[in-house]
Amino acid sequence: MTRSVPPELLARLRAARRITALTGSGVSAESGIPTFRDALTGLWSRFRPEELATPEAFARNPRLVWDWYAARRAAVRAAAPNAGHRALARLQILVPHFTLITQNVDGLHQRAGSRDVIELHGSIARVRCAREGTIVERWSQGDDVPRCASCGAFLRPDVVWFGEMLPQAATEAAVAAARACDLFLSVGTSNLVQPAASLPWLAAAHGATVVVVNPSMEGQPEGPGIFRLTGPAGEILPRLVQALEPGAPAVPRSPG
Question: Is 121 an annotated catalytic residue?
């Protein structure tokens, strides 16, 4: 499908009272943040993400993992939300019931104005105790990996690593939102990583219209009630949101 928006989809979008959106790394890639599986560069080019983002890697070399995430945090701070992020934040204002679920850990949705974001993979901006799991707001920036003031264990990023379970509360909230929505947006994600990959199918099974927005449609869901819009989120999402703005032109009627 081209980047044009079918009138039928616009009509369904305007009729929807509950919209749920799932975003992946493709949305943040438009802000200059490499996707997690892109080849690492600079000092990190000799590593694969799978060698750094695991509990085993942190246990083996906590300083290496901490420094990598410090570099990633600096890259995120230097980035800015793009038109796709801003369109989703606007959608939350225009729709009676809107839920945003993200696999991203960069916090760009919140910086664009989105509220109550369900973070399936955590947030790179937060740090927690590796032993107790408690969030730590401040820590000493020394030469070594900072430690928890309460128990002395190392601090780690509050993100989900390979081999770890997703946060139960976030997962349950995402599933509930997929089941309850009228329209489900899958944006900038390959829909290959479970359990997030099952959310569009879950929404479709409960009668929702599913809209896939991604530069590539390889492996993306197909079927009745599923609209596939090929292209970057920063171009397509503003067009969808524009149709909901007060005073937007009426949706053209289909022939016949």
Answer: yes
